[in-house]
UniProtKB/TrEMBL annotation, chains A, B:
Sequence ranges assigned to domain N-acetyltransferase in this UniProt record: 30-180
Pathway: Nucleotide-sugar biosynthesis; UDP-N-acetyl-alpha-D-glucosamine biosynthesis; N-acetyl-alpha-D-glucosamine 1-phosphate from alpha-D-glucosamine 6-phosphate (route I): step 1/2
UniProt catalytic activity: D-glucosamine 6-phosphate + acetyl-CoA = N-acetyl-D-glucosamine 6-phosphate + CoA + H(+)
Top EC class for this record: transferase
InterPro entries: Acyl_CoA_acyltransferase, GNAT_dom, GNPNAT1-like
Stated name of the protein: Glucosamine 6-phosphate N-acetyltransferase
Alphabetical list of PROSITE patterns matching this protein: GNAT
UniProt keywords, alphabetically: Acyltransferase, Signal, Transferase
Keyword Hydrolase: no
Amino acid sequence: IKIYEVHVFRFFRFFLACIMAEVPPVPEGYEMRDLCREDFHKGLIPLLAQLTQVDDLSESRFLEIFELRQRQAEVYRSLVIEHCESKQLVATASLIVEAKFVHGGACVGHVEDVVVDDHHRGKGLAKSLMNELAEDARRRRCYKVILDCKESNVGLYEKCGYKVCDRQMRLDIPASAAKP
Amino acid sequence: IKIYEVHVFRFFRFFLACIMAEVPPVPEGYEMRDLCREDFHKGLIPLLAQLTQVDDLSESRFLEIFELRQRQAEVYRSLVIEHCESKQLVATASLIVEAKFVHGGACVGHVEDVVVDDHHRGKGLAKSLMNELAEDARRRRCYKVILDCKESNVGLYEKCGYKVCDRQMRLDIPASAAKP
């Protein structure tokens, strides 16, 4: 009977794996992948402009930052979702992994720059990105993932399993002060 | 008259520099400096335990994280304040510098793990740390510095020039899920 139970369990696990493998991480017509060098020409900057001020970012400056972040792959991960038909990026989100001395030397994930293009909302693209970043955070042994958002986006992140926690505060640094 | 004005301006600048140089960044009896390898034996972990759960952090694990963070000095900076008499750490704060694609490719500073020992509060130690981290953020061309704090600490950070901004949300990752 015990051997029989093991087989039932294994079959059930196999069956579950098959079902789960068939669930596409993003809807048909979209592809989720890591940010790459060519994405400057696939509308990354106009997409980010739907979230915040992007100012003038040249391709060479984009590549500088991209390479700096690639060198620190332990820290940075940026996902994008491409719309297959238009070959344009329609969603992005990033994870910053911080190595801490607290919690036994575990890590904390910081989710940053989550944005979905206006014309592609309501399809669960943000949730696909958030799920993949949470998976990544698990693999990198984060004990929590945190993010800051406007009050109006609290509901969206609650659907992704997040809970309202503390206050975010900011100190602005005027551009003039930033010059060396 | 123009040359005279230049001299007045230079004298004034020199005079200001003298005054500013005489303002000690921390009260007498304390020293502010970067975190170093030896700080594991100067009470860093019990100090952090006043802020959050630290669990069991061995010296070898501390050194692993310390070295990982040293290799990524573009990202991490940790300050400590040592009490000269007891040779123990009594305050610490860290800055995580994130290279962004937004804001013309500027950086954002994240202040993390700010804690002052119970017995050394009310002396402006937190403010000294916050001022130095803000200076560092300026040097590294951050356009803003952000932090998350409990509602009860909002006043402290307002004194450091911070303004309440958004909501912080968190997703906890159970320890079992963190294992590969």
